[in-house]
Amino acid sequence: MTNRTTDEQRLHGPGLTDVRMMKVAHSNFRRELGLSPAAVRRTAAGDRRRTAAVADHVELFLSLLHHHHTNEDDLLWEALLERVPHELAPLVHVMQSQHEQVAEQLDLAHQAVDTWRRTASGTDGEHVATVLDNLCTALFEHLHAEETHLLPIMARQLTAAEWEEFTEQGMSSIPKRKMVLGFGMMLYEGDPEVIDLELRKLPAPVRRLLPPLGRRAFRRYARRMHGTATPPRGVGLIA
């Protein structure tokens, strides 16, 4: 039995709430934020149109990440601390410290992007890229710790209704005009079985149309943002 199979069994199955959608969300944060410093550095100084497009991309994922962590704090931590304080005790300090580090880098990134958007200068662009590099270092460490230590506890302790509320809140942070693109992003790297479970919640016509539309939207977006319709998968994974 492979390690991957073992990990997946801990996140879903009989008696467990299926929390694998969290890993799908994490893959998008890893890839899109992990590739963003290069997108910033490819932007020529003075190219205001390209600067605005890349700044919009970065700001979108900074906002989604902030919303994701706020939802975790509001909807998950309190419930888990009440139910299994002894299991979480070794993790609380680490997770809180990591959240604080990520939050600090998020604030710095927002400030840097705002400045770069106004000036479109090469110097300010390089500062954005450096801040994003630092953010990704802190974020990837946190996501790895969360997936390794926290998700299995969530699978055992959260109810299906609580998890559904969390995922619905997460989806609500995606701008409506970007919903098809967002689904294409999940399809690109997400576990097909998990994606299929999400599709089953939708009306039949939407289930048929959404995957091809999403894939097409992501290919177009990836070409504009990353220079390829097939950006690297597995960005930011810690071996």
From TrEMBL:
Q: Which residues form the Hemerythrin-like domain?
A: 18-153
Cross-referenced Pfam families, in alphabetical order? Hemerythrin (PF01814)
Q: Which Gene3D superfamilies match?
A: nmb1532 protein domain like
Provide the protein name: Hemerythrin HHE cation binding domain-containing protein
Q: Which organism is it from?
A: Kribbella orskensis
Its ancestry begins with:
Bacteria, Bacillati, Actinomycetota, Actinomycetes, Propionibacteriales
